[in-house]
Amino acid sequence: MPHEVDIETFEAMVAEAADALPEAFREQIANLEFSVEDWARPDDFARTLTPSQMMLLGVYRGVPLTKRGAYYNMTLPDTIVVFRQPLQRLAESEDDLRRRIAHVVRHEVAHYFGISDDRLREIDAY
């Protein structure tokens, strides 16, 4: 049974997950925003090479730290987007939803730091 919460509660859960990141990582995060959208956009599927019939739970829209050069200045913030509707459809309870959001936030922050999906699989963090 899906577990739905209002947008304010969902956004608070995303903020909670970001605040719960280890301090060593939080200290290195700059020019990054977290946001919530109901569903992924077509370009999110293209960016992540995900078939459109699959569900995306989150996405990192930006330039990973490992790919930034001297040209990377005076730019708009990168964004980690957490998709509300698919996560709510998967969640069985509020605690389950909170855990799923935290997992998505950690996963997308890994991409911000330049860690690929393949590497996340290697270290069993997918």
Give the topology.
Blueprint: H1 7-19, H2 23-26, E1 32-37, H3 42-48, E2 58-61, E3 78-83, H4 84-90, H5 94-112, H6 117-122
Parallel strand pairs: 1-3
Antiparallel strand pairs: 2-3
Helix pairs in contact: 1-5
What would you note in describing this structure?
- The protein has 126 residues and is α+β, with helices and mostly antiparallel strands.
- It has a single domain (7-122), classed as Zincin-like (2-Layer Sandwich), CATH 3.30.2010.
- 44% of the residues lie in helices and 13% in strands.
- It is built from 6 helices and 3 strands.
- It has helices at 7-19, 23-26, 42-48, 84-90, 94-112, 117-122, and strands spanning 32-37, 58-61, 78-83.
- The longest helix is centred in the C-terminal third of the chain and has 19 residues, at 94-112.
What would a concise description of this structure say?
By secondary structure, this protein is of the alpha+beta class. The chain is built from six helices and three strands; from the N terminus they run H-H-E-H-E-E-H-H-H.
